[in-house]
Amino acid sequence: MRQGSGGRGAAIRLRAAGGVLLAAHLLVVAWITLRPLDVPWVSAANLEPLAGIKADLERGPEQAARQIGGALLLLAPLGVLLPLVGGRLDVSPLASLARTVAAGALLSLGIELLQTGVPGQVVDVDSLLLNTVGVALAHLAVVPAARARLRRRSARPRTRRAREEAPQGATPKIPRVGIAP
After folding, report:
1. Angle formed by the axes of helices 78-86 and 93-114, to 10°?
2. Is 128 within 8 Å of 50 (Cβ atoms)?
3. Whose CA is closest to 42, among 130, 116, 131, 127?
4. Bridge-partner residues for 47, per DSSP?
5. Tens digit of pLDDT for each residue in 47-83?
6. Which stretches does DSSP call E strand in the chain?
7. Neighbour count for residue 108 (Cβ, 10 Å)
8. Average pLDDT for residues 14-22, to the nearest whole number?
9. What does R_g of the chain's alpha carbons equal in angstroms?
10. More confident position, 7 or 149
């Protein structure tokens, strides 16, 4: 079989595409969250969990949907892109979720900390919570089903020739009996 053909080459191309998409997404997130804003006034930092969400809900459903939905969607693609770049199919779903959510939470925390020095940007602990929940929801919605599909796809040979050349399993090992002392 040629180098780069078959499942291994496709996996490498998929991981590389995931890396490019991840880098592009992180650049967009940095531009959205870390650019200085020219605003007449800036509200105080929100360090009380769920206070900002409660205030958004009090402003009405349209405002709440825009604010809360935006925070949920900002880092949600990381829930899919991080496991894609990792490229492992046989991994515990719980461990994958935990790693992905932890990485999303740390990235969100980093963004919030960097915003302290950006004019017009305000630190909001609810953004941290919503960004992390968005990463978790995206991961749960896409990654387990995609991994299961890819495992099924890689388990079966695609062509007749591949089925004929497929290994039939491991050769059984027969333990050797030595001469007794």
Report:
1. 120
2. no
3. 116
4. none
5. 999 999 999 999 999 999 999 999 999 999 999 999 9
6. none
7. 24
8. 94
9. 24
10. 149
pLDDT at residue 130 in the model: 97
**Cβ 143 vs Cβ 96: under 8 Å:** yes
Distance of CA 98 to the CA centre of its chain: 11
Beta carbons of 108 and 163 less than 8 angstroms apart: no
Q: With residue 75 as reference, give the H or E element that holds it.
A: none
Q: How many residues does the chain have?
A: 181
Task: Put residue 118 in one of left, alpha, beta given phi > 0 → left and psi -120 to 50 → alpha.
Answer: beta
3-state secondary structure of 46: strand
Token pair of 176, please? 């050797």
In this structure, what are the phi and psi dihedrals at residue 50, rounded to the nearest 5 degrees?
70, 0
CA dist., res. 181 & res. 179, Å (int): 6
- Residue 124's DSSP bridge partners are 46
